[in-house]
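Before a colleague's protein record goes any further, I have to sign it off. Thanks in advance; the entry in question is below:
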Amino acid sequence: MWESSMSNSSLEEAILKLADACRRDSSALSLASEELEDIIGLAVESVRDPSGPSRQRIQELIDKEYDQFVASLPVAEPKASPRASEHSGACSKGRRGRPRGARRTTEVIRPLSRRQQRRRLYGIIHELYKKNRTRCAKTVLSSDWAKKRQTTSLEEQESYWKQLFEEPSKADSRDVRPMSRALFEISQPVTTTEYGLVLKSTHESSAGLDYVDRKVLRGIEPRIGAAHMNLWLLACRPPEAFKVG
Protein backbone atom coordinates (compact mmCIF):
# COMPACT_ATOMS: atom_id res chain seq x y z
CA MET A 1 0.00 0.00 0.00
CA TRP A 2 2.77 2.40 0.99
CA GLU A 3 4.77 1.49 -2.14
CA SER A 4 1.71 2.08 -4.33
CA SER A 5 1.07 5.53 -2.85
CA MET A 6 4.72 6.46 -3.32
CA SER A 7 4.58 5.31 -6.95
CA ASN A 8 1.44 7.37 -7.58
CA SER A 9 2.95 10.48 -6.03
CA SER A 10 6.15 10.04 -8.07
CA LEU A 11 4.08 9.58 -11.22
CA GLU A 12 2.06 12.73 -10.64
CA GLU A 13 5.23 14.65 -9.78
CA ALA A 14 6.88 13.59 -13.06
CA ILE A 15 3.78 14.61 -15.03
CA LEU A 16 3.69 18.00 -13.28
CA LYS A 17 7.33 18.65 -14.21
CA LEU A 18 6.74 17.73 -17.85
CA ALA A 19 3.51 19.75 -17.91
CA ASP A 20 5.31 22.83 -16.56
CA ALA A 21 8.02 22.43 -19.20
CA CYS A 22 5.40 22.18 -21.99
CA ARG A 23 3.52 25.23 -20.69
CA ARG A 24 6.75 27.21 -20.48
CA ASP A 25 7.59 26.44 -24.13
CA SER A 26 4.02 26.36 -25.44
CA SER A 27 4.90 28.98 -28.07
CA ALA A 28 7.26 26.43 -29.65
CA LEU A 29 4.42 23.94 -30.15
CA SER A 30 1.75 23.94 -32.84
CA LEU A 31 -1.03 23.50 -30.31
CA ALA A 32 -3.71 25.76 -28.96
CA SER A 33 -3.62 26.31 -25.19
CA GLU A 34 -6.86 24.33 -24.82
CA GLU A 35 -5.39 21.38 -26.72
CA LEU A 36 -2.23 21.39 -24.60
CA GLU A 37 -4.29 21.46 -21.40
CA ASP A 38 -6.34 18.58 -22.81
CA ILE A 39 -3.19 16.47 -23.15
CA ILE A 40 -2.04 17.43 -19.66
CA GLY A 41 -5.44 16.54 -18.16
CA LEU A 42 -5.44 13.11 -19.82
CA ALA A 43 -1.77 12.32 -19.15
CA VAL A 44 -2.23 10.52 -15.81
CA GLU A 45 -5.04 8.33 -17.11
CA SER A 46 -3.11 7.57 -20.31
CA VAL A 47 0.04 6.55 -18.42
CA ARG A 48 -1.82 4.29 -16.03
CA ASP A 49 -3.85 2.68 -18.84
CA PRO A 50 -2.04 3.09 -22.22
CA SER A 51 -4.85 1.27 -24.06
CA GLY A 52 -7.66 3.23 -22.36
CA PRO A 53 -10.12 5.64 -23.98
CA SER A 54 -7.82 8.65 -23.52
CA ARG A 55 -5.19 7.09 -25.82
CA GLN A 56 -7.01 7.94 -29.05
CA ARG A 57 -7.62 11.59 -28.13
CA ILE A 58 -3.99 12.15 -27.11
CA GLN A 59 -2.70 10.43 -30.26
CA GLU A 60 -4.91 12.64 -32.44
CA LEU A 61 -3.54 15.79 -30.83
CA ILE A 62 0.07 14.58 -31.06
CA ASP A 63 -0.31 13.69 -34.75
CA LYS A 64 -2.06 16.98 -35.52
CA GLU A 65 0.67 18.98 -33.83
CA TYR A 66 3.44 17.07 -35.61
CA ASP A 67 1.85 17.52 -39.04
CA GLN A 68 1.61 21.27 -38.51
CA PHE A 69 5.16 21.37 -37.15
CA VAL A 70 6.61 19.54 -40.19
CA ALA A 71 4.62 21.79 -42.53
CA SER A 72 6.41 24.81 -41.04
CA LEU A 73 9.90 23.36 -41.60
CA PRO A 74 12.02 24.07 -44.69
CA VAL A 75 11.77 20.49 -45.91
CA ALA A 76 12.95 19.86 -49.48
CA GLU A 77 11.60 16.85 -51.31
CA PRO A 78 14.22 14.70 -53.06
CA LYS A 79 15.10 15.74 -56.60
CA ALA A 80 15.22 13.45 -59.60
CA SER A 81 18.51 11.70 -60.24
CA PRO A 82 20.75 13.81 -62.54
CA ARG A 83 21.90 10.66 -64.29
CA ALA A 84 18.33 9.84 -65.25
CA SER A 85 17.79 13.34 -66.68
CA GLU A 86 21.09 13.19 -68.54
CA HIS A 87 20.18 9.80 -69.93
CA SER A 88 16.76 11.01 -71.06
CA GLY A 89 18.36 14.11 -72.57
CA ALA A 90 20.89 12.00 -74.43
CA CYS A 91 18.13 9.73 -75.72
CA SER A 92 16.03 12.65 -76.92
CA LYS A 93 19.09 14.25 -78.51
CA GLY A 94 19.77 11.01 -80.31
CA ARG A 95 16.22 10.91 -81.58
CA ARG A 96 16.45 14.47 -82.91
CA GLY A 97 19.80 13.81 -84.57
CA ARG A 98 18.58 10.72 -86.48
CA PRO A 99 17.37 11.68 -89.98
CA ARG A 100 13.83 10.69 -90.82
CA GLY A 101 13.61 7.38 -92.64
CA ALA A 102 17.02 6.19 -91.41
CA ARG A 103 17.19 2.62 -90.18
CA ARG A 104 17.98 1.88 -86.58
CA THR A 105 21.25 0.01 -86.16
CA THR A 106 21.32 -2.72 -83.54
CA GLU A 107 24.51 -3.37 -81.65
CA VAL A 108 25.86 -6.84 -82.30
CA ILE A 109 27.06 -8.59 -79.14
CA ARG A 110 30.14 -10.58 -80.04
CA PRO A 111 31.12 -13.66 -78.04
CA LEU A 112 34.11 -13.31 -75.75
CA SER A 113 37.44 -14.57 -76.92
CA ARG A 114 39.26 -17.23 -74.93
CA ARG A 115 41.59 -14.63 -73.47
CA GLN A 116 38.65 -12.45 -72.39
CA GLN A 117 36.93 -15.45 -70.85
CA ARG A 118 40.06 -16.34 -68.87
CA ARG A 119 40.36 -12.76 -67.62
CA ARG A 120 36.71 -12.74 -66.58
CA LEU A 121 37.02 -16.04 -64.71
CA TYR A 122 40.25 -14.85 -63.07
CA GLY A 123 38.42 -11.75 -61.84
CA ILE A 124 35.62 -13.89 -60.37
CA ILE A 125 38.07 -16.13 -58.51
CA HIS A 126 40.07 -13.12 -57.32
CA GLU A 127 36.98 -11.42 -55.85
CA LEU A 128 35.85 -14.66 -54.23
CA TYR A 129 39.31 -15.15 -52.72
CA LYS A 130 39.16 -11.71 -51.10
CA LYS A 131 35.68 -12.35 -49.65
CA ASN A 132 35.81 -16.02 -48.59
CA ARG A 133 38.94 -18.12 -49.06
CA THR A 134 37.30 -21.38 -47.97
CA ARG A 135 34.49 -20.99 -50.45
CA CYS A 136 37.01 -20.00 -53.11
CA ALA A 137 39.00 -23.20 -52.56
CA LYS A 138 35.86 -25.35 -52.78
CA THR A 139 34.83 -23.57 -55.97
CA VAL A 140 38.20 -24.22 -57.60
CA LEU A 141 38.37 -27.88 -56.52
CA SER A 142 34.85 -28.59 -57.73
CA SER A 143 35.50 -26.78 -61.06
CA ASP A 144 32.40 -24.63 -60.48
CA TRP A 145 34.42 -21.54 -61.36
CA ALA A 146 34.50 -22.60 -65.02
CA LYS A 147 30.74 -23.10 -65.26
CA LYS A 148 28.56 -20.38 -66.67
CA ARG A 149 26.55 -18.60 -63.99
CA GLN A 150 22.81 -18.73 -64.27
CA THR A 151 21.20 -15.32 -63.80
CA THR A 152 17.58 -14.36 -63.26
CA SER A 153 16.13 -11.53 -65.32
CA LEU A 154 14.67 -8.45 -63.63
CA GLU A 155 11.23 -9.33 -64.96
CA GLU A 156 11.33 -12.75 -63.28
CA GLN A 157 12.59 -11.26 -60.02
CA GLU A 158 9.88 -8.59 -60.03
CA SER A 159 7.09 -11.07 -60.72
CA TYR A 160 8.29 -13.20 -57.79
CA TRP A 161 8.90 -10.51 -55.19
CA LYS A 162 6.02 -8.21 -56.15
CA GLN A 163 3.32 -10.61 -55.05
CA LEU A 164 5.11 -11.19 -51.74
CA PHE A 165 5.58 -7.53 -50.85
CA GLU A 166 2.15 -6.38 -52.03
CA GLU A 167 0.29 -9.03 -50.05
CA PRO A 168 -1.09 -7.59 -46.78
CA SER A 169 0.39 -8.89 -43.56
CA LYS A 170 -1.63 -11.22 -41.40
CA ALA A 171 -3.19 -9.55 -38.38
CA ASP A 172 -1.65 -10.49 -35.05
CA SER A 173 -4.52 -11.45 -32.73
CA ARG A 174 -2.31 -12.20 -29.73
CA ASP A 175 -2.83 -10.19 -26.56
CA VAL A 176 0.04 -7.93 -25.61
CA ARG A 177 1.57 -8.99 -22.30
CA PRO A 178 3.74 -6.27 -20.76
CA MET A 179 6.95 -7.68 -19.33
CA SER A 180 7.15 -5.01 -16.62
CA ARG A 181 5.54 -1.78 -15.55
CA ALA A 182 6.71 1.34 -17.37
CA LEU A 183 8.74 3.50 -14.99
CA PHE A 184 7.21 6.78 -16.08
CA GLU A 185 8.02 8.41 -12.75
CA ILE A 186 11.71 8.64 -13.69
CA SER A 187 10.91 10.80 -16.73
CA GLN A 188 12.51 14.23 -16.49
CA PRO A 189 12.07 17.22 -18.82
CA VAL A 190 14.63 17.46 -21.62
CA THR A 191 16.73 20.63 -21.48
CA THR A 192 17.97 22.59 -24.48
CA THR A 193 21.55 21.69 -23.51
CA GLU A 194 20.78 17.96 -23.54
CA TYR A 195 18.97 18.27 -26.87
CA GLY A 196 21.88 20.15 -28.44
CA LEU A 197 24.48 17.64 -27.21
CA VAL A 198 22.53 14.63 -28.47
CA LEU A 199 21.88 16.25 -31.86
CA LYS A 200 25.57 17.14 -32.16
CA SER A 201 26.57 13.52 -31.50
CA THR A 202 24.39 12.15 -34.32
CA HIS A 203 25.55 11.52 -37.87
CA GLU A 204 24.05 12.20 -41.27
CA SER A 205 21.49 9.61 -42.35
CA SER A 206 18.59 9.22 -44.73
CA ALA A 207 15.38 11.06 -43.85
CA GLY A 208 12.08 9.31 -43.29
CA LEU A 209 8.84 9.77 -45.19
CA ASP A 210 8.47 13.25 -43.68
CA TYR A 211 11.85 14.30 -45.26
CA VAL A 212 13.05 15.69 -41.90
CA ASP A 213 16.77 14.96 -41.71
CA ARG A 214 19.62 16.08 -39.46
CA LYS A 215 20.19 19.22 -41.52
CA VAL A 216 16.60 20.33 -40.96
CA LEU A 217 16.78 19.59 -37.22
CA ARG A 218 20.02 21.58 -36.89
CA GLY A 219 18.25 24.55 -38.46
CA ILE A 220 15.58 24.86 -35.75
CA GLU A 221 16.05 26.36 -32.31
CA PRO A 222 17.05 23.88 -29.58
CA ARG A 223 14.12 25.19 -27.53
CA ILE A 224 11.68 23.99 -30.20
CA GLY A 225 13.26 20.53 -30.37
CA ALA A 226 13.32 20.14 -26.59
CA ALA A 227 9.69 21.30 -26.34
CA HIS A 228 8.59 18.51 -28.69
CA MET A 229 10.60 15.93 -26.77
CA ASN A 230 8.87 16.97 -23.55
CA LEU A 231 5.47 16.91 -25.22
CA TRP A 232 5.98 13.32 -26.41
CA LEU A 233 7.26 12.31 -22.99
CA LEU A 234 4.20 13.85 -21.38
CA ALA A 235 1.87 12.10 -23.83
CA CYS A 236 3.84 8.87 -23.36
CA ARG A 237 3.73 8.26 -27.13
CA PRO A 238 5.39 9.64 -30.28
CA PRO A 239 3.62 10.67 -33.50
CA GLU A 240 2.31 7.84 -35.65
CA ALA A 241 4.63 9.04 -38.43
CA PHE A 242 7.57 7.69 -36.42
CA LYS A 243 6.18 4.15 -36.75
CA VAL A 244 6.18 4.20 -40.55
CA GLY A 245 9.39 3.02 -42.18
